[in-house]
Amino acid sequence: MDYVMMTLQRSTRSRLSLRGQEETLSDELDSENLADLVGTKMAYDAFEHTVSEYRDENLAGLNMSVQQLFFVNHCAKECSEDNSAVPPYASPRARCIVPLMNMREFSSAFGCAARTPMNPHEKCTFW
């Protein structure tokens, strides 16, 4: 579990440093970030199970696959004019991006090139 937390901290730091945001990482923030990661992965797995018959369809008028739409909706809940962090949580932007950059499913859905910010070589996975 220590390796998972270190990888997650690196993911969070890399996203924050790219945006010039300075947040203090703490055990409480780590716990919330881990919950975001696990929750997003579990939600995606449940989503994939329920939409299996529509998996390869694009949605009319959106030019998006159902997988892409899942990830867009994941981040929509974090949209606001105020992008600042509210303790004990990371910023809304980090809460959107960090779980996704650690999911192979996201990289595959959007065709992210290997070793790019949204498809790093080292991902925080543990199941």
From TrEMBL:
Any GO BP annotation: protein processing
First and last residue of the signal peptide: none
Any single GO CC term annotated in Swiss-Prot or TrEMBL for this entry: plasma membrane
A Pfam family assignment: Peptidase_M13
Alphabetical list of InterPro entries matching this protein: MetalloPept_cat_dom_sf, Peptidase_M13, Peptidase_M13_C
Molecular function via GO: metalloendopeptidase activity
Domain Peptidase M13 C-terminal: 31-125
PANTHER family documented for this protein: GH26575P-RELATED, ZINC METALLOPROTEASE FAMILY M13 NEPRILYSIN-RELATED
Name this protein carries in UniProt: Peptidase M13 C-terminal domain-containing protein
